Amino acid sequence: MGNKIFQMLVLLCAFAMNTRVTWAQFSGNISGNVQDPTGASVPAATVTLTNDSTGEALTTKSDSGGAFLFVSLAPGNYKIAVVASGFATTNLSVALLTEQTLNVPVRLSVSTIAEKVEVTGEAPTINTADSRTQLTLESQAVAELPLQGRNLIALTTLAPGVTGLGLVGGSPGSAADNFFDGDPSRRQRERKG
Asked: Is position 19 within any domain?
């Protein structure tokens, strides 16, 4: 007799534990179809379902036909956010009841492309009183230039607007070398003077 009571007690406990697990399962579902403004299905849209009371979020992608499905949901209020490339994000709020399968069609609108380009900076100052053209080269830049014999005087011909007329008198680097900015009248004045 004691053995039968023990067996009944074990069976009753197992049944009670199984009932709790059964009560914890939910059977509410939310499904839908994601469409563009023309009614065509939008595949691979990211659909996020967020439970308002718990903050729990579930995410899925719409299939090739634009369909999505969330199963075994607790009853309550939910927010649905749908994001797809080229479309504006769509947000919806729904209320799900126990054992309800809720169909939520989602129609996306085309997003507007808004780009803002902001350019900041200052224009270089132009000195209108001086027509001189300058070029400053760092020592590493000079070392990397393909110059025959590394003649630094030859570097002056690399500056914009400069032409070398050669050696007028003296040796290179003796300040007798003449380089002009390409103005023929200036060359003539320099040669006459």
From this structure: no
Determine the average pLDDT of the residues in 134-154. 72
**Is the entire prediction scored with pTM above 0.70?**
no
Task: Please spell the DSSP secondary structure of the chain, one letter per residue.
Answer: -HHHHHHHHHHHHHHHHHHHHHHH---EEEEEEEE-TTS-B-TT-EEEEEETTT--EEEEE--TTSEEEEEEEPSEEEEEEEE-TTB--EEEEEEE-TT-EEE--EE--BPPP---------PPP--TT---------HHHHHHS--GGG-GGGGGGGSTT-EEEEESSS-TTSS-EEEE-S-HHHHHHHHH-
Domain at 65, CATH number: 2.60.40.10
Q: What residues make up the domain containing 37?
A: 26-107
For residues 33 and 103, state if they share a domain.
yes
The reply to whether 41 and 103 lie within a common domain is yes
Contact assessment for residue 188 and residue 165, using Cβ atoms and an 8 Å cutoff: no
> Does 2 map to a domain?
no
